[in-house]
Amino acid sequence: MADNTTMEKIVALCKRRGFIFQSSEIYGGIGGFWDYGPLGVELKRNIKEAWWRDMVAGHDDTQAPPNAPSAYAMVGLDTSIIMHPQVWKASGHYDQFYDLFVDCRTCKARFRADQLGEYPCPRKPSRRAGEGEDCDLTEPREFNLMFKTYVGALIDPTAEAYLRPETAQGIFVNFKNVLSTTRVKIPFGIAQIGKSFRNEITPRNFTFRSREFEQMEIEFFCSPEESEDWYSYWRDRRLDWYTSLGLRSDNLRLREHEPAERAHYSCGTADIEYAFPFLPEGEFGELEGVSHRGDFDLRSHMEGKLIRDGDELVVELDEEGKPRYPGSGKDLSYFDEATKRKFIPHVIEPSAGADRTALAFLCEAYDEDAIPDEKGTLQERVVLRLHPRIAPIKVAVFPLVKKDGMPEIAASIYRELKKRWNVFYDEKGSIGRRYRRQDESGTPFCITVDSQTLADDTVTLRDRDTTKQERVRIDDLDGVIGERLTAN
Ligand code: GAP
User: Fold this and answer.
1) Could you give the CA distance from residue 351 to residue 290 in angstroms, rounded to a whole number?
2) Consecutive 10-residue averages of pLDDT for the chain (488 residues)
3) Pocket lining: 164 vs ligand 1, CB cutoff 6 Å
4) Gap from CA of 398 to ligand 1 centroid (Å)
5) Is 169 a pocket residue for ligand 1 (Cβ < 6 Å)?
6) Separation between Cα atoms, residue 238 and residue 114, nearest integer Å
7) Which residue has the CA at smallest separation from atom 19 of ligand 1?
8) Which residues face 34 on adjacent strands?
9) Distance CA 127, CA 417 (A)
């Protein structure tokens, strides 16, 4: 990340190059919703694919990864966005998933109660919400973050349903289905990538806090005795994942929550945080939460909504002494063949946001420098130093000029490389400008067909970060690029 990286520059680049657009922009936009453009969709797909490969498809069930307490299995799921409304009642989201907000009666603006000191009042002169003499704030009130909808033709309370605010619950309610169909044994993880929706009071900071976003979640089921070891393993494993894809470790930190800060289900949470440029120097924002959820979720879906009574979790009862929000009544416990013991598994949950991850990678990759053009004059450039695994376009192919058969050779190289990677062909504009356009898009390599190609079948291969060029035989391109894309 360049020292002078600002959110304004990131947002402008995203718009200019087609990474991210405001949703419904031609109608003035809609707060908290974003569209990924041609480059953005590739970036986000690459992030999700890297996560799926590293956590699920490429995971070796037969041996313990470094620092893991033991070997474990990992399987995937893709569950529905709208689920039975009882899911959200038993899980606690129906009556506990809210933020506190305050309204200003004078300017009609709405603020999150916990962020009053952080955001300005919309009126001039600029000041913090509540600081003006005529600011007239209401008492904090609760606002449930779940989007409500109706299933079927009737718009009445019996048809009410919710867009999921997390992908996790789809995993918990399928716990028994996975156990009986895959024969996995504890410890094992179930992973899911999918959209979640939260009617955030104050969506802000570009895609950081959106109302529609994607999560990449793992629910890792283990025995209560081993749960602390697995909690520790997943915190480190997930932190390492971000550095392996290019986030600098001094821009990242792992922060353990204070007990009072934890969500209702958590008996331990650590956030993986990133120094986003919209934050003051030295401050970090949540990228991923790793939580020790104990047996909260499976128990809730068995017995009904749980509340804390001192150190105990007990089923919340109504005035008649019945569960206020009953669970399914199904047995979601696990029978361990080895120890002949039956227990409710504990859960460790690494829960990441694909959009926040994409934003962090964009911020980290953003850089500005100056490079000589064809005439040796220094030209300022913006370069996205994205890790090759997540770069939207891997290689761009150019003919130096549009004559002498160069476009035909370049097009045939393009077609050949496109069989393996996302490759871009461009014959318009000066070669320097074409390079700089790819630098801004984060493309790690550019190939140019020039007059020497016609004599010896070699092309130039240019590296985005060093801007160094070397000659490579056309026949060797596939191997050389393949090696460099997977080098680290
Ligand atoms: N299942 C646990 C859970 O959902 P969370 O901390 O509320 O935990 C996990 O969310 C991750 O989802 C966050 O670390 C963040 O990356 C992403 N996320 C949550 N709310 C978001 C929002 N409004 N906009 C974008 N990403 C969000």
Assistant:
1) 6
2) 87 97 97 98 98 98 96 98 97 89 84 78 77 83 91 92 98 97 96 97 94 98 96 97 96 92 82 96 96 96 93 93 96 95 97 98 96 85 96 98 96 98 96 95 98 97 96 97 89
3) no
4) 41
5) no
6) 28
7) 353
8) 22
9) 55
